[in-house]
Design brief:
heterodimer, A: 166 residues, alpha/beta, three-stranded mixed β-sheet, 5 helices, 27% helix, B: 264 residues, mainly alpha, 2 strands, globular
């Protein structure tokens, strides 16, 4: 019912859709929204259906199905239930699409943001999110999730997650 | 009873279907082998690393299976990626034989992953140019993940090869055990040869030298010697498998086979 009223009032427009998308968080890194991550590739409205294209981060990322569901829920909550979510592979997601504010949020959360550009798999000079030292060492190439590596800081001795370039 | 024995219609070229299935099976089976280390890794961080690699490979397999499933029609309905993974028998799997081999010790697992990541690294670079857009898209995406797998496994080969007497011996044993199973990376099946003419599949001759060079580079640093095979084993792509695959599938498929269509 609400949906119809909203449709009549022409409140559905892409700006509004993006505003809703900005409230959906990544379930594994809840400090980031999906727009911070840059996984929403396209939004269109066709015949009253909201069509959203998202691109998976890692191919095996188990969060993707949950993200798709959370997007649907966010729209249903606002009274829209005609939503189609499509996963697209190309162009492939890259950490270059993560927003600057997203990177800042990661850092404040205690996760070192990706350093450098896509494909740059360096492990030197990753900055400790606690004390900002760059005197850090890779402990493991893979951390608590596929998108992160585990580092330790040689100065403050704290271990930390690093969001790898992709 | 296998899915593919039932009334099935392939709505696309049979070669493309077989090729996609080959890519799916290979990544699924090595993923499954790696996942068997979950909870058994030598240290927690490496346990997590290997299972993360398994997860990446499972994701790649899912992309290939999803694509293969779109080419099928069984009694008017479309099978899913799960049907293809869980309802086919060993003789229908088209994975490389190296991927199904029992894990053995850490040295064997690490060496297999190194050989395989090295193969995928060069293979996906070529597959990105495929005239099949979906295969090219999966390749571009997966290549980013393989860069990390290759670095991780290379470092382990070097660490064990150039490590203690014990670790060096174990690496030498692993090289011996796997020596007959790397040529299959470059021996082309009929469906691959057919698809080369359409610029869909990768001409494996183009990556053979690169693979050997990379292996030599890492082996030199690891003080190890590559042994060429006198008896290459190569029919996995055509469905001829060892008991290693049968036992793997028995475990992996038991739930769907015993309780068909169960979900949780």
């Amino acid at each position: 019912m609400i949906k119809k009223e909203l449709n009549k009032n022409k409140i559905i427009n892409t700006t509004f859709i993006w505003q809703i998308l900005e409230t959906v968080c990544d379930p594994e890194v809840p400090v980031l929204t999906i727009t911070d991550l840059g996984i929403v590739r396209n939004v269109v409205i066709e015949n009253d259906i909201i069509k959203i294209s998202i691109t998976p981060t890692y191919t095996g990322c188990p969060a993707m199905d949950m993200i798709a569901m959370n997007i649907k829920l966010a729209f249903i909550e606002k009274g829209f239930n005609k939503i189609e979510i499509k996963q697209i592979l190309s162009p492939a997601w890259t950490t270059d699409w993560m927003t600057e504010s997203g990177k800042k949020k990661l850092l404040e959360f205690g996760i070192a943001p990706p350093k450098g550009n896509a494909g740059d798999i360096t492990k030197d000079g990753v900055q400790c999110p606690q004390c900002k030292s760059i005197h850090t060492t890779l402990i493991s190439e893979f951390g608590s999730t596929a998108c992160k590596a585990l580092f330790k800081c040689e100065d403050c001795k704290e271990p930390f997650d690093y969001f790898k370039c992709y | 009873m296998s899915l593919l024995n039932s009334k099935l219609r392939i709505t696309n070229s049979i070669q493309l279907f077989n090729y996609t299935l080959h890519l799916a099976d290979t990544t699924l089976i090595i993923s499954h082998r790696n996942s068997e280390w979950c909870g058994h890794g030598p240290v927690l961080e490496q346990d997590i690393a290997l299972t993360n690699i398994a997860l990446d490979l499972l994701g790649q397999a899912r992309n290939f299976y999803q694509y293969a499933a779109t080419m099928l029609s069984v009694k008017g309905t479309q099978p899913t990626e799960d049907d293809l993974a869980y309802l086919r028998d060993a003789n229908e799997f088209k994975n490389h034989l190296i991927t199904e081999k029992f894990n053995g010790d850490w040295a064997l697992t690490v060496l297999r992953q190194f050989y395989f990541s090295c193969f995928q690294h060069f293979f996906y670079q070529e597959l990105q140019q495929s005239s099949d857009e979906q295969l090219a898209a999966i390749a571009t995406k997966s290549l980013k993940e393989v860069a990390y797998h290759l670095r991780w496994s290379s470092e382990w080969v070097i660490r064990l090869g150039d490590g203690t007497e014990e670790s060096h011996t174990r690496m030498k044993n692993a090289i011996d055990i796997l020596k007959d199973f790397t040529d299959e990376f470059f021996i082309m099946s009929d469906y691959e040869l057919d698809l080369i003419t359409k610029n869909i599949s990768v001409d494996l001759n183009n990556i053979k030298t690169k693979w050997h060079q990379k292996v030599k580079e890492i082996f030199d640093e690891a003080t190890l010697q590559f042994i060429p095979s006198a008896h290459p084993q190569s029919d996995g792509k055509n469905g001829l498998h060892s008991v290693h695959l049968t036992t793997l599938l028995a475990e992996m498929q038991i739930l769907q086979r015993t309780y068909p269509n169960s979900v949780w």
